[in-house]
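Retro notes (design track)

What went well: tokenization of the new backbones is finally stable.
What didn't: we kept losing track of which sequence belonged to which structure.
Fix going forward: every design gets posted as structure first, then sequence, in one message. First example under the new rule, 596 residues:
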């Protein structure tokens, strides 16, 4: 057998299961393969025979190294491929780098670039597979493309910082899972360049959570829905959580906050409060607070002038419904005000026609209202409606029993409160004055009118300026009578007559006879006045006298209710007499309608 044939026969047997070898064998021309074998045979044929010895076990003669003790010789191909006979390691590189003195340290070493046009497969038949990079190298391994225009580096293994550096986006195109180490406090950790934790995934069983060590700034502008009626509204926000939210420090919001939970506020038997929003500390509101339903303050602190109390209002309060005030035997409501101008400490306005401004009810013996003032207590009843519609009403008693109404006066001299005006339970009225004090009835104008006995006695005091003519003198009094009514009238008049005092006392009987006698008639001669008695006093040197006239007003008819006008004038007075002020008291008694 020739050397060429021996060398050829020493090649590894053909593996029919190796698809790559089958493809190469099919693509290789037979004569080309024979040529390569011939070249190798010639190289070994011209080699010194001392470098060759038979390989006993195979019966194949192959070149060996100069060391006759080696059964597996080193092999060098044109100084570019070195196969170390002892280790079997292969080095691809210059002979100066790989030789009998310096053998490859790995099964395969390549000094330079390597191109693999097929797959790179790892087989773990000899144990675990590993890709090992040199230590202390900032770019121990780099994965990049060969784009001649703008090459991109994707990964760099930095064995100095012991980190894998990612230079390009990391995109998941298959399984979207990024797995963390299970059951560890830091199963996965995102740190900054200095190794400080930024985001930690705690994978411990039962307490798994994500822990953020730095602020999270969400710049998305999606606004939260304004109502919870829309079910799709739940996911419309920059931050959405299906569970609870715990904030350990201050929370600042530039938008509105709306809690859609419908839990109503409540207080349990222990005094604990709950609701849709519960705040352990105080609540500070810089603007208005609008509450559609109730506000309940559970503090029982009493109000004080220094601002103490369960509820403190710096300004006024407007309450449009009923207000209930009550506590114990002490004061239910105490007002302490200091106004530098005229004002009211309490102002209550009832706008409804039947509403009471203040309604106080007491079941005790001290009454519903107790007023005490260092100076003056004023009760005013007024109305913006028709005249006479306002006023003050005091009611003593109720449906079961008549009560007493008292006006009392107290002083150090009196020693104890003294009744001044008393309306008794039987309806009697008693007016009491101090010894030597006056009981006075005054009027703002010139005419004071006192009506008594259910309108059957009326007394009027007035001042009129009479003249010397019956046609121009003013009325002294006007009495209104219905048909068949009669009244007696007494008149006391005082004046200065021609620089001298004068007085008149007269009594009249006036009846409504539908224009018939003895009804007064000023047109008769002498006039019929109804005077039954008259006394006139004047100075001896005074000329003239005072005359009375009673004139029925028949303008509406003689047989209807009508006025009888009583007038007084100076008859036969001296030419110098013009007018004179008469102070008169007119008293009417009988069955009549009114007297003015």
């Amino acid at each position: 057998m020739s050397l060429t044939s021996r060398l050829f026969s020493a090649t590894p047997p053909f593996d029919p299961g190796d698809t790559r070898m089958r493809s190469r064998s099919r693509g290789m021309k037979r004569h080309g393969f024979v040529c390569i074998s011939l070249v190798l045979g010639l190289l070994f044929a011209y080699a010194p025979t001392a470098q060759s010895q038979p390989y006993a076990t195979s019966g194949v003669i192959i070149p060996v190294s100069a060391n006759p003790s080696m059964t597996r010789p080193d092999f060098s191909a044109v100084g570019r491929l070195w196969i170390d006979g002892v280790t079997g390691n292969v080095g691809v590189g210059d002979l100066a780098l790989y030789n009998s003195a310096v053998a490859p340290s790995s099964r395969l070493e390549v000094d330079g670039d390597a191109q693999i046009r097929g797959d790179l497969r790892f087989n773990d038949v000899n144990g675990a597979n590993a890709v090992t990079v040199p230590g202390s190298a900032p770019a121990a391994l780099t994965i990049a493309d060969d784009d001649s225009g703008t090459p991109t580096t994707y990964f760099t293994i930095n064995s100095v910082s012991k980190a894998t550096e990612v230079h390009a986006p990391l995109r998941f195109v298959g399984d979207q899972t990024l797995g963390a180490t299970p059951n560890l406090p830091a199963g996965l950790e995102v740190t900054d360049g200095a190794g400080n934790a930024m985001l930690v995934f705690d994978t411990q069983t039962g307490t798994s959570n994500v822990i953020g060590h730095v602020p999270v700034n969400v710049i998305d502008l999606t606004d939260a829905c304004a109502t919870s009626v829309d079910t799709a509204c739940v996911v419309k926000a920059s931050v959405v959580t299906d569970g609870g939210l715990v904030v350990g420090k201050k929370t600042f919001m530039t938008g509105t906050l709306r809690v859609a939970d419908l839990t109503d506020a409540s207080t349990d038997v222990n005094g604990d409060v709950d609701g849709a929003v519960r705040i352990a500390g105080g609540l500070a509101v810089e603007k208005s607070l609008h509450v559609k339903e109730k506000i309940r303050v559970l503090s029982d602190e009493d109000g004080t002038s220094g601002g103490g109390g369960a509820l403190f209002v710096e300004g006024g309060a407007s309450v449009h419904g009923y207000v209930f005030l009550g506590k114990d035997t002490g004061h239910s409501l105490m007002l302490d005000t200091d106004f530098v101008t005229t004002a009211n400490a309490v102002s209550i306005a009832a706008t409804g026609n039947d509403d009471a401004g203040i309604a106080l009810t007491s079941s005790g013996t001290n009454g519903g209202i107790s007023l005490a003032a260092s100076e003056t207590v004023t009760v005013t009843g007024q109305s913006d409606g028709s005249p006479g519609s306002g006023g003050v009403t005091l009611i003593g008693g109720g449906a079961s029993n008549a009560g007493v109404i008292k006006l009392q006066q107290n002083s150090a001299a009196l020693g104890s409160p003294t009744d001044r005006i008393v309306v008794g339970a039987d309806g009697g009225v008693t007016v009491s004055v101090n010894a030597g004090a006056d009981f006075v009835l005054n009027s703002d104008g010139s005419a004071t009118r006192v009506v008594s006995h259910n309108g059957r006695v009326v007394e009027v005091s007035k001042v009129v300026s009479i003249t010397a003519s019956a046609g121009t003198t003013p009325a002294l009094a006007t009495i209104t009578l219905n048909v068949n009514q009669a009244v007696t009238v007494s008149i006391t008049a005082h004046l200065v007559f021609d620089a001298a005092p004068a007085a008149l006392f007269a009594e009249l009987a006036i009846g409504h006879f539908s224009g018939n006698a003895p009804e007064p008639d000023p047109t008769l001669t002498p006039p019929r006045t109804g005077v039954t008695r008259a006394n006139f006093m004047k100075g001896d040197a005074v000329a003239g006298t005072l005359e009375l006239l009673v004139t029925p007003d028949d303008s509406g008819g003689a047989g209807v209710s009508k006025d009888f006008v009583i007038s007084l004038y100076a008859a036969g007075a001296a030419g110098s007499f013009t007018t004179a002020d008469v102070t008169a008291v007119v008293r009417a008694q009988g069955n009549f309608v009114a007297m003015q």
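Added context from the reviewer: Confidence is low (pLDDT under 50) at residues 1-64.
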